[in-house]
TrEMBL record, chain A:
<keyword id="KW-1133">Transmembrane helix</keyword>
<keyword id="KW-0472">Membrane</keyword>
<feature type="transmembrane region" description="Helical">
    <location>
        <begin position="278"/>
        <end position="301"/>
    </location>
</feature>
<feature type="transmembrane region" description="Helical">
    <location>
        <begin position="77"/>
        <end position="97"/>
    </location>
</feature>
<feature type="transmembrane region" description="Helical">
    <location>
        <begin position="425"/>
        <end position="445"/>
    </location>
</feature>
<feature type="transmembrane region" description="Helical">
    <location>
        <begin position="232"/>
        <end position="252"/>
    </location>
</feature>
<protein>
    <submittedName>
        <fullName>ABC-2 type transport system permease protein</fullName>
    </submittedName>
</protein>
<feature type="transmembrane region" description="Helical">
    <location>
        <begin position="385"/>
        <end position="405"/>
    </location>
</feature>
<feature type="transmembrane region" description="Helical">
    <location>
        <begin position="157"/>
        <end position="180"/>
    </location>
</feature>
Automatic annotation (TrEMBL), chain B:
<dbReference type="GO" id="GO:0016887">
    <property type="term" value="F:ATP hydrolysis activity"/>
</dbReference>
<dbReference type="InterPro" id="IPR003439">
    <property type="entry name" value="ABC_transporter-like_ATP-bd"/>
</dbReference>
<comment type="similarity">
    <text>Belongs to the ABC transporter superfamily.</text>
</comment>
<keyword id="KW-0547">Nucleotide-binding</keyword>
<keyword id="KW-0067">ATP-binding</keyword>
<dbReference type="InterPro" id="IPR017871">
    <property type="entry name" value="ABC_transporter-like_CS"/>
</dbReference>
<dbReference type="GO" id="GO:0005524">
    <property type="term" value="F:ATP binding"/>
</dbReference>
<dbReference type="InterPro" id="IPR050763">
    <property type="entry name" value="ABC_transporter_ATP-binding"/>
</dbReference>
<dbReference type="InterPro" id="IPR027417">
    <property type="entry name" value="P-loop_NTPase"/>
</dbReference>
C-alpha cells in the first residue's frame, strides 16, 4: 500500500493534467455540436459529409438510425479520444513499470522490503484507479448536460468505453514491459500497436467491417453509443483480465532488469559518420510525424470538397465575400495557402533545432578538432536548411496528395491531377520563401528566430481573414502568397514563382553568411 | 603556438574580458585559473572562434585566426558543461567525433573507455554530469589535435577519475601536445601546469611559471605543540595567526619559509601539517599587495 501511495503521489500532477485535458476535450464538444447543428437538416448534412470512404477511415463507420447531436458526438469523438486515452495509459504504465525498472527505482523499492507481488499489483491498480477516474469524470460530466439525445445509458457506454480502452493499453504496456528490455522499446512497441490498430480498422472499416472486429477501436464503434447502445461490444474488453494475469505472472517469474525478449544489450552501434546523419537521427520523429499529420489533414480537407458548394451557399457572409467566384475553387486555393504555411512549420522547427545545438554548446564542441570539410558551422546550417526545405515541400506535396485522394470521387469538381501538380509547384515557391525567412532569422540569432514564427502566424491569419473579410491588400504585402497566382482557378504566374523562389534562396544564403561569422550564444 | 594579444570582449556594457594577453608554447601545459565568472570561458570561446573579440588579435601558429579558419581543426575542446545528444549512446558520440576527425585508432578508444570506466552502451540522456564529461574528455583525447583545451574538466568527476584525467593529460603532453587547462582548483593546476595565468574580473592579474609565482602564494601551517608560540604572531612573514582545537593555524609567505623554519626549531612540536595554497588565498594576497 505504501508503494501504491508513493506511485499515486508521484503521478498526481501529471495524471491530473492529462485527465483534465482529455476529459475536457470530450466534454467541450456536445454543447458545440448542439449549437452548430441545431436543426435535423444540418445534422443530416453532416451525416452526408462523413459518409464517405475517407471520413470512414478517419472516424469509423456511420451508425444506422437518426444522426442526433449525441450520436454525432459519439461517432466523431470516440475513436479519436480512444487514441489519446491509449497514449496516456501507455505513458503512465511505461513510466511506472519498465522505465522505473531501467533507472533502478524498482530495485530501490524491492530493497526496501516491498515484495514483487505488491509491486506489480500496485502498478496494475494505478491503471485501474486512473481509468476509473476517467470514467467517473466523463460519466458525471456528460450527465450534467441537458442536451437532446445524451441519454444516461449512452453516457455510461461512452465513459466506460474510453476507460476500458485506456485500461486495455495500460495493461498491454505492462505485459510488453516484461517482454522487452528497455522503456524506450516498450514505449515504441506499445505506441505502434496503438497506431496499427487504428490504421488497420481504417482500412477494414472501408473494405469490410467484419474484419475490423480484431481492433479494439472497432469495439467502440460497434457499441454505437447514444444510438443502438450495444453494450455487448464491451465484452471483448474482458481480454484485460487475461493480460492482467499475464503481466502478473511474467513479472513474478523473471529477475528484475531481465526480459523475455532480448534486443537491447547487444544493440548494434549505429555508424553515425556525418552531421547530416546525426541530424536525421535526432529529427526523424519530428519530420515523419509532420509528414503523416499533414497527409491526414490533406485527406480530411479533400473529403469535404464535395460539400463546399452547399456549405458556402448557406453562409451569407461567405457568399458575399466570394462574389462571383466559383466557391469550391476559391476555397481550395485558400486551403492550399493554409496548407503551405502549415507545411512550413516543420522547417521552422528544424531550424530551431540548429539553434538548440548552438545553445547547448554542442555546436562549438563539434566544430573544434573536426575537419572543416566534414563539419563546420556552414555544414550545420546547410544541413538544417536542406532538411527543413525538403520536409516542408514533402509535407505540402503529401497534403495535396491527400486532398486529391480524398476528393477523387467528387464528381462536380473540375480540378484535374495536372491542376494539383501545378498548384503544388506554384505554392511551393511560397514555402521556399517562408523557409528562407526562417533561415535568415536563425542565421541572425536564436531570439530573432522567434520573429519567423510571428511572421508565419501573421501570414496565416492575414490570408485566412483576407479571404473571409476581404481585408485590404496592404496587410497582405508581407505574404509571398499574395504575389503568386491563386491556383487552381487562375493560371500560374511563372515570373512570380521564379522571383519568390529566388528571394527565398537569397535570404537563406544571407542567413548562412551571417551565421558563419557571428558570435555563438 | 597560440598567442592572445590584448584581447577584449564586451557584451553590451559588460566587460567579460579585458586586454587579455598570453602565449602558449608548444608542448607545455598552461594553467588558466580564476574564480567562476572571471572570464575564463569567454577567453576560451574566443580562442575556438565561438565568440569574436571586440578588440585584439588571436594568432595560431603565427597566423591570425580570422584569416585561416582551418586552425580550428588543430584544437580539441571540452566545455565545462557538457551536453550530448540524448538519443545516442556514449560510444556512438565518441565514434561520431572520431569519424568527423578522421581519427582511426580504435585500440586507443577502447583503452580510454576502459580506463575512464565508461559504459558506452547507454544512451546519453541517462548519463550523469560526470559520465557526460567522460564522453567529452575521451573524444578530445581521441584526435590528432595539437592543442587540447579543457574548461574546468574535473568538476563532475570523482577523485579516482580525476587522477585518470591527470594521467592522460601528462600522457598527452609527453606525446608532444599542448594543453590549456582552465580551472578554479589551484592544486590541480599546480600539479599539471608548467606555467599559469590568473584571471579575475576579466583581467589577467599574474602570469608566469609556477616558480615565479611562488611569491604570491602562502602555505598554511598547522602546528600542534605544548609550547606557547604566540610570539611568532608578530613576525612579518606570519599571517592570520589563529588558535584552535587542532593547534595553531598560520599562513607563511612562500619566499620566507626558511626563516620561519629557523624560528620553529626553538619549540618542541608534536605535529606539523601543511595545507596547500588555495585560490582565494592567492587573491587575498594579491589584493593586499595592490593596496
Amino acid at each position: 500500500m505504501m508503494y501504491f501511495k508513493m506511485l499515486m503521489k508521484n503521478l498526481r500532477l501529471k495524471s491530473a493534467l492529462w485527465i483534465i485535458a482529455l476529459c475536457g476535450l470530450s466534454l467541450a464538444v456536445p454543447p458545440v455540436f448542439d449549437g452548430l447543428y441545431s436543426t435535423a437538416g444540418e445534422r443530416e448534412g453532416m451525416k452526408m459529409t462523413v459518409d464517405n470512404a475517407a471520413m470512414t477511415a478517419m472516424i469509423g463507420p456511420v451508425p444506422d438510425g437518426d444522426y442526433t447531436t449525441a450520436v454525432m458526438f459519439g461517432h466523431q469523438m470516440l475513436l479519436f479520444m480512444a487514441l489519446f486515452h491509449g497514449l496516456f495509459s501507455i505513458l503512465i504504465a511505461n513510466g511506472i513499470a519498465r522505465k522505473a525498472e531501467d533507472t533502478g527505482l524498482t530495485e530501490y523499492v524491492l530493497s526496501a522490503g516491498i515484495g514483487k507481488k505488491t509491486i506489480v499489483s500496485s502498478q496494475l491498480m494505478i491503471g485501474a484507479v486512473i481509468n476509473l477516474l476517467v470514467f467517473i469524470i466523463l460519466f458525471g460530466g456528460l450527465s450534467l448536460y441537458n442536451i437532446d439525445g445524451l441519454s444516461l445509458i449512452g453516457n455510461l457506454y461512452y465513459a466506460l468505453g474510453l476507460a476500458m480502452f485506456g485500461l486495455l493499453f495500460f495493461v498491454m504496456t505492462m505485459v510488453l514491459g516484461n517482454l522487452f528490455d528497455s522503456g524506450d522499446m516498450t514505449f515504441g512497441v506499445s505506441l505502434s500497436l496503438l497506431l496499427v490498430f487504428y490504421l488497420y480498422r481504417a482500412v477494414t472499416d472501408v473494405a469490410d467491417t467484419a474484419y475490423s472486429a480484431a481492433s479494439p477501436y472497432h469495439w467502440l464503434s460497434r457499441i454505437e453509443v447514444y444510438g443502438a447502445n450495444n453494450g455487448l461490444w464491451l465484452l471483448p474488453f474482458i481480454v484485460i483480465l487475461l493480460l492482467v494475469v499475464l503481466s502478473y505472472m511474467l513479472f513474478i517469474k523473471r529477475d528484475l532488469g531481465d526480459s523475455y525478449i532480448k534486443t537491447g544489450k547487444e544493440k548494434r552501434l549505429r555508424n553515425i559518420n556525418s552531421y547530416p546523419k546525426l541530424a536525421f537521427i535526432n529529427m526523424r520523429v519530428l519530420i515523419i510525424s509532420w509528414l503523416i499529420g499533414l497527409f491526414i489533414a490533406g485527406l480530411s480537407y479533400g473529403s469535404v470538397f464535395g460539400d463546399l458548394e452547399s456549405l458556402i451557399g448557406e453562409n451569407d457572409m461567405l457568399r458575399e465575400a466570394l462574389g462571383s467566384n466559383n466557391a469550391a475553387e476559391f476555397f481550395i486555393s485558400m486551403l492550399f495557402v493554409i496548407s503551405a504555411l502549415l507545411s512550413a512549420a516543420p522547417a521552422l522547427m528544424i531550424n530551431g533545432r540548429m539553434l538548440a545545438e548552438e545553445k547547448t554548446g554542442r555546436l562549438e564542441v563539434m566544430n573544434s578538432g573536426t575537419l572543416n570539410r566534414k563539419l563546420s558551422r556552414g555544414t550545420v546550417f546547410a544541413t538544417h536548411y536542406m532538411y527543413g526545405l525538403a520536409a516542408a515541400v514533402s509535407a505540402f506535396v503529401l497534403t495535396v496528395l491527400g486532398m486529391y485522394l480524398a476528393s477523387m470521387n467528387v464528381d462536380d469538381l473540375s480540378i484535374t491531377v495536372n491542376d494539383y501538380l501545378l498548384s503544388a509547384v506554384n505554392y511551393s515557391a511560397g514555402i521556399v520563401f517562408t523557409v528562407g525567412v526562417s533561415a535568415l532569422f536563425a542565421g541572425i540569432s536564436k531570439k530573432f528566430h522567434i520573429t519567423a514564427w510571428l511572421y508565419v502566424t501573421y501570414v496565416f491569419f492575414a490570408n485566412y481573414f483576407g479571404v473571409l473579410l476581404n481585408i485590404d491588400d496592404i496587410y497582405l504585402m508581407l505574404s509571398p502568397f499574395h504575389y503568386l497566382s491563386e491556383m487552381p482557378h487562375e493560371s500560374m504566374d511563372i515570373p512570380a514563382v521564379l522571383i519568390i523562389t529566388v528571394l527565398g534562396f537569397v535570404m537563406a544564403l544571407i542567413g548562412a553568411a551571417v551565421f558563419k561569422r557571428r558570435n555563438l550564444l | 603556438m597560440l598567442e592572445l594579444k590584448n584581447v577584449t570582449k564586451y557584451f553590451g556594457k559588460v566587460r567579460a574580458a579585458e586586454n587579455i594577453s598570453f602565449a602558449l608554447n608548444k608542448g607545455e601545459v598552461f594553467g588558466f585559473i580564476g574564480p567562476n565568472g572571471a572570464g575564463k570561458s569567454t577567453t576560451i570561446r574566443m580562442i575556438i572562434g565561438a565568440l569574436k573579440p571586440t578588440h585584439g588579435e588571436i594568432e595560431y601558429a603565427g597566423g591570425n585566426i580570422k584569416k585561416d579558419k582551418k586552425y580550428i581543426e588543430n584544437i580539441a575542446y571540452v566545455p565545462g558543461d557538457v551536453n550530448l545528444w540524448g538519443n545516442l549512446t556514449g560510444e556512438e558520440v565518441i565514434n561520431f567525433m572520431m569519424k568527423t576527425r578522421k581519427f582511426k585508432n580504435t585500440d586507443e578508444k577502447l583503452r580510454l573507455i576502459e580506463k575512464f570506466k565508461l559504459d558506452g552502451r547507454k544512451k546519453c540522456k541517462t548519463y550523469s554530469k560526470g559520465n557526460r564529461q567522460k564522453v567529452a574528455l575521451i573524444s578530445a583525447f581521441l584526435s590528432d589535435a595539437e592543442l587540447l583545451i579543457f574548461d574546468e574538466p574535473t568538476t563532475g568527476l570523482d577523485p579516482l577519475m580525476e587522477r585518470v584525467f591527470h594521467e592522460e593529460v601528462i600522457k598527452a603532453k609527453e606525446a608532444g601536445k599542448t594543453i590549456l587547462l582552465s580551472s578554479h582548483i589551484l592544486s590541480e593546476v599546480e600539479k599539471l601546469a608548467d606555467r599559469i595565468a590568473i584571471i579575475r574580473d576579466g583581467k589577467i592579474i599574474e602570469s608566469g611559471s609556477l616558480k615565479e609565482l611562488r611569491h604570491i602564494t602562502r602555505m598554511e601551517y598547522i602546528i600542534e605543540t605544548a609550547d606557547d608560540i604566540t610570539a611568532l604572531k608578530h613576525r612579518d612573514f606570519v599571517h592570520e595567526f589563529t588558535e584552535s582545537d587542532d593547534g595553531y593555524h598560520l599562513f607563511i609567505d612562500n619566499d620566507r619559509v626558511p626563516e620561519f623554519l629557523k624560528y620553529l626549531k626553538l619549540y618542541n612540536l608534536k605535529n606539523l601539517t601543511t595545507a596547500p595554497p588555495r585560490l582565494e588565498d592567492i587573491f587575498m594576497r594579491y589584493y593586499e599587495g595592490a593596496e
